[in-house]
Amino acid sequence: MRVEWTGHALEQVARRGLSRDLVEEALRVADRVVPSGVEGRSVAEKKYRDASGQLYLLRVVFERDAERAVVITAYRTSRLSKYWRDAR
Predict the structure, then answer these.
(1) What is the rounded CA–CA span in Å between residue 68 and residue 22?
(2) Taking every pair of C-alpha atoms in the chain, what is the biggest distance, in angstroms?
């Protein structure tokens, strides 16, 4: 699957200190994909630990068609229980 980025997504990922590689990995091997609440969009979610061992949930909002995924935005949160029931 080809990954494309909106200008907004590139700005937000840079501002939030996320790597593009991490975001693309979350799209390719998400722990789960859920509806975003906006028609045609989904959210890929991936749990990961940073260098200090802190557990985060990376959420990538995207649109997909047969050939590509377009990243709309991405962010991480340490409040896993807000989005994921079994956050351990």
Answers:
(1) 17
(2) 38
Length of the chain: 88
Q: What is the pLDDT of residues 11-54, one digit of tens each?
A: 999 999 999 999 999 999 999 999 988 999 999 999 999 999 99
Question: If you search the block for the tokens 């590139």, which residue do you land on?
Answer: 10
Radius of gyration of the chain (CA): 12
Sole residue written with tokens 């840079």:
14
Give, in order, the Cα–Cα distances in Å from 69 to each of 3, 16, 49, 59, 80.
5, 21, 24, 14, 24
**What's the chain's average pLDDT?**
92
Rounded to two decimals, the pTM is 0.90
22 close to 76: Cβ distance less than 8 angstroms:
no
